Each structure stands twice: as C-alpha cells, then as structure tokens.
Amino acid sequence: MLGTCIGIYFGNAISDPRRFGLDMIMGCFLLAMVVSGEKNLRILAIWVVAGFASLLAYWYLPENSHVVAGALAGGVAGTFYRGVADADLLVNWGAI
C-alpha cells in the first residue's frame, strides 16, 4: 500500500522513463516470474487468464489499467483454481 501511495505521489517525477530504461522493468519482472516460477497446468491457466484480461483491458479500458486488470484476474484465478497438487498439499498439512 505504501508503494502505491509513493507511486501516485511521485509518479510524474520522472518525465521520460525510457531515458533511464524504466519502461522495461515491468517486462523484465514478468519474464523473471515466468522463467523462475512453477511450471504446471494450474500456473499456466492463471497466466492465460491474467494475459487475456490484460489484453481486454488494454483494448477497452483507460491507459495503463491493463496492468491492474491482469493482476487482479490472475489473483482471482489463482484463488479459485485448485489443482490436484494443491489438494494433496492441503491434506498433507492437515488442513482438510
């Protein structure tokens, strides 16, 4: 929450983020998450949902809202999509 407030307050402090290469940070961050993250059907489905929601938001919503829309859609998909491995993990931890 603090980071969001700082971003809102100081967001326009750097007038040309491309000059410093800051426009590449989001892409590099997402690439690092994909390459180093888990690789299974559940994660693939979450990334597809997030990507599709982000594309729709990019086409139909105001500028830069696609980042938030994709993140929210991926978070919701991850919350509700439980694969077999997740159920086994909960049983092993005694949650079920």
Question: Quick gist of this model?
Answer:
This protein has 96 residues and is mostly helical.
Major sheet summary line: none
Structural class: mainly alpha
Distance between the termini: 33 Å
Q: Work out the helicity level.
A: 55-70%
What Rg is obtained from the alpha carbons, in whole angstroms? Answer: 17 Å
Average of pLDDT: 80
Share of residues in strands: under 5%
Please tell me what the overall shape is: globular
Number of helices: 5
Sketch the topology as an H/E string, one letter per element: HHHHH
Q: pLDDT below 50 for ≥5 consecutive residues: which ranges?
A: 89-96
How many individual β-strands?
A: 0
Please tell me about this protein's structure.
With 96 residues, this protein is mostly helical. Helix content is 69%, strand content 0%. Helix 3 packs antiparallel against helix 4 (65-80).
Describe the structure using short key phrases.
mainly alpha, 96 residues, 69% helix
Topology summary:
Elements: H1 2-10, H2 25-36, H3 41-60, H4 65-80, H5 84-92
Helix pairs in contact: 3-4
